[in-house]
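Researcher: Batch entry, complex prediction.
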Amino acid sequence: MMPAQPNLDEILAGYGRERDNLIPLLQEVQDRFQYLAPEAVQRVAEHLELSENDVYGVATFYAQFRFVPPGLHHVKVCQGTACHVRGSGMIVDAISRTIGIEPGQTSADGKFSLERVACFGSCALAPVVVLDDKVFGRMTAAKTKKLIEDKE
Amino acid sequence: MSFATLQDQARLEWTEFERPDQARILVGSATCGRAAGSLEVLQAFAKELDKHDLTDSTKTFEVGCLGMCYAEVLVEIRSRDGLRVLYHGVEPRHVPQLVESQLVQGEPYLPRALAVMTADDKADLPAFTELPMIGPQVRIVLRNCGIIDPTNVRHYLARGGYQGIARAIGMGPDAVIEEMKQSGLRGRGGAGFPTGVKWGFARNARGDKKYVICNADEGDPGAFMDRSVLEGDPHAVLEGLLIAGYAIGASTGYVYCRAEYPLAIERLQLAIAQMRELGFVGENILGSGFDFEIKIKKGAGAFVCGEETSLMQSIEGKRGMPRSRPPFPANAGLFGKPTNINNVETLAAVSAILEKGAAWYGSFGTDKSRGTKTFALAGKINRTGLIEVPMGTRLRTIIEEIGGGVLGGKGFKAVQTGGPSGGCIPADFIDLPVDYERLAEVGSIMGSGGMIVIDEESCMVDMARYFLTFTENESCGKCVPCRMGTQHLLRILTDITEGRGSLDQIETLRRIGDTMKNASLCGLGQTAANPVLTTLQYYEEEYRAHIEDHKCPAGACRALIRFDIDPARCTGCMACARACPVEAISGEKKKPHLIDQERCIQCGSCRQACKFEAVLVS
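Model: Structure tokens for the complex:
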């Protein structure tokens, strides 16, 4: 069975019309729809009585918000300092080579997307890869490649 | 229910938790523990206990982080004879032996045993407090992490929790501020401003409504102190926020937490619900007439929001850009109202100070930097983890004793403190006492507490470029010195690491750096050049080697290095050939291999794979 399509009206109804609701509202919309579609942004703007321009201004300021759907499997590679000195650059390269996309892209078949993230705060287990919200520590290029291939 | 009754109940529950004749298993399950597989270990215990019919007699708890992240998954088992043993590196496959050995036979499972938890435990193992990693530490902020069940407010209460706010209410707001001044506590977010003085400003500001904010937007890459405290002891932070609110006369508190920390947010939400149930938020707290509400705001991934004025813009639903000061937040902050903002670690210290007194806290640390500081120890070091030491502890103690020295016996080159706002401190300064003043003297900063150990294989120009990649990306773009400065620094550093640098660029880096320091609007821009300026100060010869000789002495900058296989050392094991992602390595089994330089992408996979140090970098 397909999961029920989230309902934008229901989400909007949970928030007042004050401006400080904007970021939490965008976060919930993205949480439920996986990204911020133009229609969703328009509806959020109407609800808070802001211009769409204003909402995009805020949404694009923050790294968290996406405007295209992510892949079925979302891979995040930590770029924190500890991960950097322990070779996270090699890991990004290995994933790029394995699935043929650069950070910020989604593969043509919609199966994978790759994102570089500032720091997960699991520095003691560097380098860290997060696949579909599960954290993997002490990664190497080879282990990451296997992790990806297992999902293919 | 009165506070005293509540405390009695909590103590009873704690005594039960600590009863030596009750078997108990504690599994470290903060984010680090989970990344290392703690949830799988928990499942394995559930299955194994069931098999031995021990489920009813042995309770299992998820606890926070003891700070020994390198040794995760950490498990403490107490058998019915009272023996408490700490096990390290536990995987699900060890669980049957652990249960059989300690819970059934009453003997520690030695292959994975690290320590006994108290010196009275009769076993041939060191005591936890005497471990080299733990011995030099003083845990005030981390007092409960890994010891209590963070989801159980009664554990927090039984260990002195909420006595701080009770005492504060007995003293009155002015005396609380005076106590904070006496304690000498300085802001642990990085800038080191005296907390009591800051509270005084907000208390004296006029306004019908005031706010307090807990800054949990721990954005420095390489820092995770705040995450660990929030996950392992959320009430310690929330009580600090409550005390700050009481002292300045605020009725609403915000916790602004990074969205990248989902477990911390979950623990905060639960803790606030528990506070409401027990009457620590809501109206008339502890019968004092003081009303207080706490709200959580999730960050959305912008480093600049760690800066106080940006953070407030973000809470208001705007782009998180800083503004010039004055007016300071103490007078006109969130929604234009007087606002006090403190960092997570500061607030966790506040609750301890109010519980135990300023004199007690002031007895730790140095004259101008009192108390303790937590550090996230990571990078090329044997024992990575979260530590807390008195201010003034020497770098040598931290790196050699607590951290167990540099990974793989390599040479210690530098330690990076303060993240993208800090600097690299060379190995020569290993006897430096760590406090605000001393770190500033050598060109770095305390920062929030990230401490990354760098070995001889890390290139300092590449480190500077790494941090500038970060700050260039995170600069909000509002002021020119930061927006243009970070771009130009990054461009020049990229030129140098890719072999296109020229000597006059060294002077240009310094000039741009100085301008950014003096002219940027907020802390991000004012400090963004520090990684460049300190590496230039101590490692100018590395910059010159890149520019003049087109060489990276550390062997890290890809454009300037090549890998070769030493035929004398190569055993022909083929490990490197299998690791190579571009099939650039050829050679028969048991015969020396060869790297095709045309195909090689300088990724270093072969070097990592080789067990005989046969892959040379030049």
